[in-house]
Structure formats: C-alpha cells, structure tokens
Design brief:
406 residues, alpha/beta, Aminopeptidase, 7-stranded mixed beta sheet, two-stranded parallel sheet, 11 helices
C-alpha cells in the first residue's frame, strides 16, 4: 500500500494461502452451543494442528468485540475496537496501518473522520488478495445495539484468518481490511424499503424466481450484465450501486486516488457470518468463477448446508459493491442476509437481538474452513496463470508460444 498515507505500527508478517486445509488432518473441535445471553462456549476437544482455522479462537474475538458494546463511528466504542484489533494483529507480528478519511454522511451532517485498519501480510508477489469486513455499528436511541453478527463476526473471522495465514509465505500479498463506517447510512433506508414493500428490481426478480417465473440461467445472465455495468461505473463516477456503504466507499476511493486498486487480484468481503442458522447467499454481483470456488470448496468439505448449492441467487448490500464501482471485478461477497427466519433481512437484523445468543462458533468454523480452502485454490489457479504468462511453453520449432491474455 505504498501510495496511501497511513499511520503505521508493528512489523511485517507472513502469508499462508497455498496450504490445503484438510490434507491429512484430524477432525476439528467439538463445540457446544453458546450459552444464551453471553459469549461463553463449551469446548470438549481442541484442535491439535495450529495451522487449521479455529472457530473457537474466532469466537473469542467475537465475544471480545461484543463485550466492547456499540462501536459507532467516531465514538469511544469504535476506538476501543480498533485498539483490540491492533493489539491482536500486532501480537501476530503483522504490520498494522491506519487509513483515516473524512466523510460527510448522506443527507448532511457534520464531517466525520473514519479510521480504517489494514494488516499487510507480504507474499511472493506484490499483487493483492484483499479480505475485508466492517467493525462499526449503528446507533439506536431506543435500545443498545451491539451488532454481534453484523459487525463483530466478520472482523473475528479476519483475525483468525490472519493467524493462520501468517504462518507461511505464499504467492500473493494479503491485505486484511477492517472498515469503519459501513453501518452509517443506507442500511436503515434499505430495511425501511423492504418493510414497506418498495423492493428493487433484484428483489422482484428473486421473488419471481421463488414463484417459478424466472430460472437460474436468466438471473446468472443478469448477474453478468450487472457485473459489466458495475465495472463501468468508475468512468461515470456514479456510486449508486454502492448506495450506503459509506465506509467501504471512502476506503475504496482513497485507494483509487493513490492508484492502489490496480494490483488487487481478488477482493472478498465477509459480513454476518456467525448466524446459528447459517446460509451464505449466492451473490449475483460476485465474480462467478471465484464465487463458485467457495461453493465447490464447501461441497468438498461437506459444508453445503451453510453454502447451499440450490439456494436462490441474491444481491446482498455489502462492501464488495464499493470496489466494483472503481472497476475491481474480481469480487466475492460471503454474506448471510437472512438473520433470524427465512425472509430478508431477518428478524434479528439491526435489533437488540443481534447478540452472541443467536450466533455460533460452528458457523465461524465453517466459513473459516471454506474460505481458507477457497482462497488456497484461487491462489493456486492464479499462480499457474501467472507462471505461464511469465514462462510460456515452447512453441513450434523452438519459437515461444505467445503469452495468454489474463
């Protein structure tokens, strides 16, 4: 992240992306359900292989962030959350950088400074795998909102991924981005629209699919068309596709201003990944080849209940849209957009019920295992492509074959 001006701390860490997660490994930990109303879990066995993703460790991070309480941008809670994230990343020996940006909330209001954190894990290539989650919460006057699933589960997952990835250098540099401000605007309006039936075209298409009026092929075609449209938004400067998402928009814009987006080979966003009844949405706006790598990994690891193969295609509001606006097309959203019940966004979403009592360490374990394996497969695939581009096979009569266009 050479061009972006950040406040720095810590030292350089290492990257683990190529390790195959379940090769010759023993079964994972047996984890009991969380106790209602608190963040305790029962563990009857512990993993013996420290190179494995641990849902138990991730749950500890989730519990710590929940204990901080509301993490409203610009407030003491957000500051305490950043201190926790910095301490945990620093303990892994990772370089931790701060990216402060000033933003004006939609509809007016005083300018607010957001503070994004980025942990850098150097790889053999300076090209980047960006993994992101937001840590801030909305403020409600009528109840205390801690947003455990919404904005503690993603950062908790990233912290445990950071631990595992820091064990060995792998092909690509990894940025772990902890985004401030994505809860500030847009999401409340989106919920209001859903509650009052003001659904957008994607929601109506989804409804049509559920009633048999459209098939998956039609929606996949629509996804491809939308992917092209999102990539073209950078030319027109129209950020409507990332409505809301104030934090990730400011983060992506800051990187774009310093020409730091060009090297991103993959951007994966994690949001609401600890739901006890976990069903990750197959996102229409994600790059299909990479999205399906996650689903293939889930199938091979026997985790298809959480990554349903025949689930409906959705379009969750997540930070990957902010990167698409700036032309980053290799994007994936790992989001459970039904938190409490089967309807979007779910009964617990943005309520006082978004606590650890409705979350599970098993869900963190599942998403962590699947993500680690999928990232390894994607890294291996891209490495082969890069190797061929650098060292093409010999052609006819000793004339080198032309390098393929990536």
């Amino acid at each position: 992240m050479g061009g972006v001006r950040m406040r720095s701390g810590g030292c350089a860490g290492l990257l683990l992306l190529g390790l195959l997660l379940f090769a010759c490994q023993s079964p994972g930990p047996e984890i009991g359900p969380p106790s209602p109303g608190n963040a305790e879990i029962r563990v009857t066995a512990t993993p013996t292989d420290p190179t494995r993703f641990s849902g138990v460790r991730a749950w500890g991070h989730l519990a710590a962030l929940e204990e901080i309480g509301p993490r409203v941008s610009g407030g003491k809670g957000a500051e305490r959350a950043r201190a926790y994230l910095r301490d945990e990343l620093g303990a892994l020996g990772l370089e931790v950088r701060e990216l402060p940006v000033e933003v004006a909330p939609a509809g007016g209001g005083e300018v607010l400074e957001l503070v994004h954190l980025v942990a850098v894990l150097p790889g053999e290539s300076p090209d980047v795998f960006l993994l992101a989650a937001h840590y801030d919460t909305l403020h409600y006057e009528s109840f205390r909102y801690v947003g455990t699933n919404e904005s503690a589960s993603g950062p908790a997952l990233l912290l445990e991924l950071a631990r595992v990835m820091s064990l060995e250098t792998r092909p690509y540099t990894v940025w772990l981005a902890f985004i401030d401000g994505d809860a500030l605007d847009g999401v409340a309006l989106e919920r209001e629209a859903l509650e009052h039936g003001a659904l957008d075209g994607v929601a109506l298409e989804r409804e049509a699919l559920e009633h048999g009026a459209l098939d998956g092929v039609a929606l996949e075609r629509e996804a491809l068309e939308r992917d092209v449209a999102l990539a073209a938004l950078a030319d027109g400067g129209d950020a409507e596709a990332a409505s809301g998402l104030l934090g990730s928009r400011s983060f992506a814009s800051a990187l774009a201003a310093e020409d730091e987006l060009a090297g991103i080979r993959l951007a994966v966003v994690f949001d609401a990944v600890a739901d006890s009844d976990l069903h990750i949405a197959r996102d229409l706006n994600s790059r299909r080849v990479y999205r399906e790598t996650f689903w293939e990994a889930a199938h091979d690891l026997d985790r298809s209940t959480a990554f349903p193969v025949y689930g409906s295609l959705d379009s969750p509001q997540a930070a990957h849209r902010s990167f698409a606006v700036h032309g980053v097309r290799s994007i994936v959203a790992i989001v459970d957009n039904r938190y409490g019940g089967d309807a979007i966004p779910g009964d617990y979403w943005h309520t006082e019920h978004d606590t650890s009592s409705h979350c599970s360490p098993r869900s963190l374990q599942t998403v962590g295992e699947v993500s680690f394996e999928a990232l390894s497969r994607i890294a291996e695939r891209l490495s082969r492509i890069d190797d061929f581009a650098t060292h093409p096979l010999e052609g006819v009569n000793g004339v080198p074959a032309p390098a393929r266009i990536r």
